[in-house]
Amino acid sequence: MLLVFLQDIRVEVEDRTLFEIKNLSIHQGDRIGLVGRNGSGKTSLLEVIAGERETSAGIVTLYGSVTLIPQLKPKMDKKSGGEISQMVINQMLSRKQDVLLADEPTTHLDAEHLMRLEQQLQNRQEAMVIVSHDRVFLDAICNKIWEIEDGTVRVYSGNYSDYVYQKQEKLKHHNKEYEKFVQKKKQLEAAMREKEQKAQRATKKPKKLSASEARIKGGKPYFAKKQKKLNQGAKAIQTRIEKLEKVEKIKEAPPIKMEVIHQDSLKKRIIIRGEKVRGEAGKCLLWKEFDFSIIGGDKIGIIGANGSGKTTFLRKILDQSEGISISPAVSFGYFSQMLEILNHNASIIENVQNTSCQDQTLIRTVLARLGFFRDDIFKSVNVLSGGERVKVAFGKLFVSDANVLILDEPTNFLDVEAVEALESLLNEYSGTVLLVTHDRRLLENVATRIFSIKDKRIDSYDGTFREYIIEEPKEDHNPLEDELLKVDTKISEVLSRLSIQPSQELEQEFQTLLRQKKGLMRRLDASL
Description:
Blueprint: E1 2-13, E2 16-27, E3 31-36, H1 42-50, E4 57-62, E5 66-69, H2 81-93, E6 99-103, H3 111-122, E7 127-131, H4 135-141, E8 144-149, E9 152-157, H5 160-201, H6 211-217, H7 220-243, H8 263-266, E10 270-281, E11 284-295, E12 299-304, H9 310-318, E13 324-326, E14 332-335, H10 348-353, H11 360-369, H12 386-398, E15 404-408, H13 416-428, E16 432-436, H14 440-446, E17 449-454, E18 457-461, H15 465-471, H16 479-500, H17 504-527
Parallel strand pairs: 3-7, 3-8, 5-6, 6-7, 12-16, 12-17, 14-15, 15-16
Antiparallel strand pairs: 1-2, 1-4, 8-9, 10-11, 10-13, 17-18
Helix pairs in contact: 2-16, 5-7, 16-17
């Protein structure tokens, strides 16, 4: 059943066209992942469908109700970003709609809440359009991908991995067409040169030509005619070359070869050691005493629920807290979402060069990998979007004099393409990496060791994230948890309605739901 139809849509920002759509539709059962670079118009497209943004041209026809979960969530005292995100999601999911639009719903969610959201969406019936940089999430939810690229929307069938495969096949086909074009052009150019050379030789009278032969052939007029014919043939080939359908060569990302300071002396040696390191936040125990060592070249993924102490662990290392010893050769590069390392009044290239010993060619290569090409690098940081500033901050760290990168949630506010660029750069980086992220695909493809914070302890696992997941003991799922989640969702929805239009009926419903929640919690505690 058709739920949304977009026809002849054009969306503009200031004096430029953001994207155009000839026709696009959403049907019942569609679970669409919307991808594209930061600034390509993903949020704008969701707002157009939801009726929250006007178009410069075209018609949006709705055949059902639409709800939008926005990217920017309200700020609330004493609540973390993850708690706020979950609350807003629960409120939106409590409503009945035909089409659910979600703009980066996974931002700030830890692994537990992320997987819970996956289960919630998999069990729902409405059509969906989801913007997310989490590739595993898109794989789990989607059966179709919309990609905004070069101002148009292209549709791919399947989940995100299917989309990547189709893009790769398309790239292979393009490269084959380019090779055919180059080969055909070379053949024609060789044929044209041969005719030009023959034409040039035709102006010369053969030395062994007898007088009688000269009389028969007509002497110079004969050779002039032959030259003209050859020149005409050469021009005909030139016309064929000009009419060849040109196929542009796709630029491949050059490899990154950089010198990391003290790389040889730190490689495969213990560079950070912790003995009886205890984590506390005020009077709250985050984790018990923990011994650990980090070896030069390690790429450690640090995982755990929101509030478990991941950032605290990083800060203890940076501050060289009690029980932690660090090699004198270690130089830290620290990324946090506050982006304190950027000078907002300076340009991209000035920010990156100021702390780098690398040559400009490598710096430009890294920035190009992150999506900053040619004159882009001269833009001032204060005109960049949040996602673009994150990319500049990472580029600055990557080419800095640091040999240990400490990255605290670097993927938030990045598009999928930028996350994949970050992943590629980290894989090519020969230094040491400590990475806090909820991005499971990034952990799978980068981390060589895992530090897991859970139940007030830190466990070290020597292996990849995928191996860790396979070997981690699985907890039995209690169906009471699903019932509790449903009640929590209803409570959030009723509270939202109470804040807008209080009534005695809503208050009674709220009290009834609270009693149900308390009963479920008692049953859940008794079952443990």
